Amino acid sequence: MTDRLVHCLKLKKELPGMAAPPYPGELGDKIYQQISAQAWDNWLSHQTMLINEYRLSLIDIKAREFLKTEMQRFLFSDEESKPPGFVEASKKTD
């Protein structure tokens, strides 16, 4: 945890930031400056869902490019994509 606060673009409030950039390069710096640790944790959960639902292989460059695009959409816009027909576990009915 860090004492550094950021105005999180994703959650639209001031929250603790991350201790270090979570991604390499300019994009990592942008995330570090503008996204809270909480929003990053939310992205990691969303990313895991995308990997599982689409059965992505992280050794595939196209899968990594897809996740990078989805990460940018998730963190810097109000768009959150979910696979067609995806139902969250807490909303599933028997």
Please characterize this protein's 3D structure.
It is built from three helices and two strands. The chain is mainly alpha-helical and 94 residues long. The longest helix has 18 residues, at 37-54. The termini are far apart.
For the structure shown, list the relevant keywords.
9% strand; 2 strands; mainly alpha; 94 residues; 3 helices
Layout of SSEs?
Elements: E1 5-8, E2 13-16, H1 25-34, H2 37-54, H3 61-76
Antiparallel strand pairs: 1-2
Helix pairs in contact: 2-3
Give the spatial strand order of the biggest sheet. Answer: 1-2
What ranges have pLDDT less than 50 throughout 5 or more consecutive residues? none
Oligomer: single chain
> Mean pLDDT across all residues, rounded?
91
What structural category arises from helix and sheet content?
A: mainly alpha
Q: How many domains, as an integer? A: 1
The CATH superfamily is known as: Fe(II) trafficking protein YggX
- As a percent range, the share of helical residues equals 40-55%
- Radius of gyration, CA atoms, in whole angstroms: 14 Å
